[in-house]
Write a structure and sequence with these properties.
The chain is α+β, with helices and mostly antiparallel strands. The chain contains 20 helices and 8 strands. A hairpin with a 2-residue loop joins β2 and β3. The longest helix is centred in the C-terminal third of the chain and has 41 residues.
Length: 485
């Protein structure tokens, strides 16, 4: 039986502007530039340049209330019409304009790592069959110079891809030839083999090199665990001979492929600061990176087009009405995007100013021990923004100061209480740990128990397991692996 009924629901709905703001808050300066370029390509109504005064008056209030739950009313054609024009020369003053000239500078690049290995095949006396096997093996060597696949897997691949039956012995013989190529150590299947291949070329040069080769072949596990006493006892070496042999090993390259890899093939991430902080007469001068403040506007050409359509409403054809709707949609999109950029700028500044105020003592000198414990909620309370907004702002954003460039996440840390009841940042404790380990006797490095005892003497009552956690976060190995001769 069908029955009609009324049902009332409350739904939270984000406006297009709110969605734009949320997405733009998450991206750093470098990606913001790319995002703006994409929007300019997709929306012909949007262009670089200062906005007109009419736009500021009509929509300034909407930008300030972007994160509220109030949806914007539908815009009329008159909202898009601008009476004043901006001289063309003003549109080329900042950022990028359509008149800017961008010349790509060509560069020359050397042959790649794999190309250099293949070129060395030409110096070998090999059959066509062996050459085919060698080229396939070289194709499986990674950029570090290692062959990280098992020989039996390569044999199977050659059989399937090239229809050539190869046994493991034949493939190993070809691999041995490749392992004689430069750089020394290339084609190794693990670190031990890589170091042995390099040291084998120094065999007979000195007593130290011969001892180093024996250590790698017979006592590699003891070497990696730094059980030097066992090695010295079994090889009947005194401290000086053992130290000389270890020094020979430490000179070897654990990633031989890196010496021939083209720098152009490596991914280099350039950090572009989102904020620039300067101190003048003891006062903070904070500003957004100029790349973070693009000047965008709605094209006056499309405003004029709508104005013309507005004056001839009665005589409009169906195609003209569709054109009006298309332009209105693009104008809506352009204005939402400009407002979202504005809101992004305002939110970034509000959050960064709150962080500056909270960590004022640290930003004056850059002394890491001056960092106060600070979590996302602390800044959310100061700015009356949601924690998720603070998280988006701090993610992948950087600030340039007079003592370096730092990610915003660097300034957030948990807190611990000292014996006197004072709350200190865990970053301060990590700094003390680093200083203790840097100044330790490397022949007798400090254990986690000893480090916990030292911190306790400094009024930081921390358990050994907590010390171990902080040490691991600092990428510092255990005491045994820090031991030196």
């Amino acid at each position: 039986m069908l029955k009609q009924s009324l049902q009332q629901k409350m739904l939270q709905k984000l406006s297009p502007l709110q969605i734009q703001v949320i997405k733009l808050l998450e991206i750093p300066t470098a990606q913001l530039e790319q995002r703006i370029k994409e929007e300019l390509e997709q929306n012909p109504v949007l262009e670089y340049g200062s906005e007109t005064q009419d736009y500021d008056d009509d929509y300034g209030e909407e930008a300030d209330t972007a994160e509220s739950d109030i949806e914007k009313d539908e815009l009329s054609i008159e909202d898009y019409i601008h009476d004043d024009e901006i001289p063309a020369y003003k549109l080329q003053a900042k950022n990028y304009s359509k008149d800017d000239k961008h010349d790509d500078i060509p560069f020359s690049s050397a042959s790649t790592f794999h190309e250099q290995l293949v070129s060395q095949l030409g110096l070998q006396v090999m059959t066509d069959r062996q050459l085919a096997i060698a080229e396939y093996i070289i194709g499986n060597i990674d950029e570090d110079g290692y062959l990280r696949r098992e020989i039996d897997e390569i044999v199977d691949d050659i059989a399937f891809s090239q229809n050539v039956e190869v046994d493991e012995k034949e493939a190993l013989e070809v691999l041995r030839v490749i392992q004689d190529f430069d750089p020394a150590g290339v084609g190794a299947r693990d670190l031990r083999e890589c170091l042995i291949l390099q040291m084998d070329r120094k065999k007979g040069e000195t007593v130290a090199s011969d001892n180093a080769l024996e250590i790698l072949k017979d006592y590699f596990e003891e070497f990696t665990r730094k059980h030097y006493d066992k090695i010295a006892k079994r090889m009947h070496l005194d401290d000086d001979d053992l130290k000389d042999a270890i020094d020979e090993i430490l000179k070897l390259n654990p990633k031989p492929g890196g010496s021939l890899s083209s720098p152009m093939s490596r991914t280099v991430q350039h950090i572009i600061p989102d904020f620039i902080l300067e101190i003048e007469d003891g006062e903070f001068l904070l500003e957004l990176n100029s790349r973070n403040v693009p000047e965008l506007r709605v094209s006056s050409t499309y405003s004029d087009m709508l104005s013309d359509y507005q004056s001839n409403k009665k005589n409009q054809s169906r195609e003209q009405k569709e054109a009006v709707m298309f332009v209105k949609q693009k104008l809506d999109s352009a204005k939402w995007f400009i407002d979202a950029i504005r809101q992004r700028q305002n939110t970034l500044m509000v959050v960064m100013e709150a962080i500056l105020e909270y960590q004022k003592e640290y930003f004056i000198e850059g002394d890491e021990t001056r960092l106060r414990p600070m979590i996302l909620k602390d800044i959310a309370d100061k700015t009356d923004l949601d924690i998720s907004t603070i998280s988006r702002v701090s993610n992948s954003k950087y600030i340039q100061t007079h003592f370096g460039i730092f990610p915003l996440k660097y300034f957030f840390s948990e807190g611990l209480q000292t014996d006197s009841g004072e709350e200190v940042s865990t970053r301060e404790i990590k700094k003390i740990l680093e200083e203790c380990i840097a100044g330790e006797d490397k022949k007798k490095p400090l254990t986690d128990d000893k480090l916990a005892q030292i911190l306790k003497e400094k009024s930081y009552n921390i358990a050994r397991r907590t010390v171990a956690k902080y040490r691991e976060q600092l990428n510092i190995p255990v005491a045994r692996l820090r031991k030196e001769l």
